[in-house]
Amino acid sequence: MSDAFHNNEARLTFTGRVRSMRYAFNGIRIMLASQHNAWLHAAASLLVLCVGLFFRLSAAEWCWIILAVISVWTAEALNTAFEFLTDVASPNFHPLAAKAKDVAAGAVLITAIGSVLIGLMIFSPHIYLYLKTEWLPR
């Protein structure tokens, strides 16, 4: 067999997978340490989790909520990586680098708006029912 096969086979070890996970967790740590918006996403994620537990969402509702939350986190992580790469490629200001960063940030905004819409669709009936039964006069 070829040397390339053996090199790839050697990389598919348990210790290699553990090392990859360590790098991935380090990437999350770097994102949280360097991006203020990541803290906003963390607060929003925690709030959505608490509200979802309060309203005892169904499994199907949780699937949509998890998908929405994870999509925002993924977009933020990719945006962070894109910003770092752009800074390496263009350490001095360049209008195209600025446009690239703006587009990547726009992708996060699009994802966040979509996630808010999913959240409204999931939580609105629960909030309405709660207000109707607990707060409005009978």
Brief synopsis:
This protein is mainly α and 138 residues long. It has helices at residues 3-11, 14-34, 36-54, 59-89, 95-134.
Write the layout of secondary structure elements.
Layout: H1 3-11, H2 14-34, H3 36-54, H4 59-89, H5 95-134
Helix pairs in contact: 2-3, 3-4, 4-5
Structural notes for this entry:
This protein has helices at residues 3-11, 14-34, 36-54, 59-89, 95-134. It has 138 residues and is an all-alpha fold. The chain folds into 2 domains: 1-34; 36-134, Helix Hairpins (Orthogonal Bundle), CATH 1.10.287. The model has no long low-confidence stretch (mean pLDDT 91).
Radius of gyration: 21 Å
Q: Name the poorly predicted regions.
A: none
Overall domain count: 2
In angstroms, what separates the terminal alpha carbons?
78 Å
Please give the largest β-sheet: none
Q: Mean pLDDT, nearest integer?
A: 91
Q: What structural category arises from helix and sheet content? A: mainly alpha
* Helix fraction by DSSP (H/I, runs of at least 4): over 70%
Task: Please tag this protein with its features.
138 residues, mainly alpha, Helix Hairpins, 2 domains, 5 helices, extended
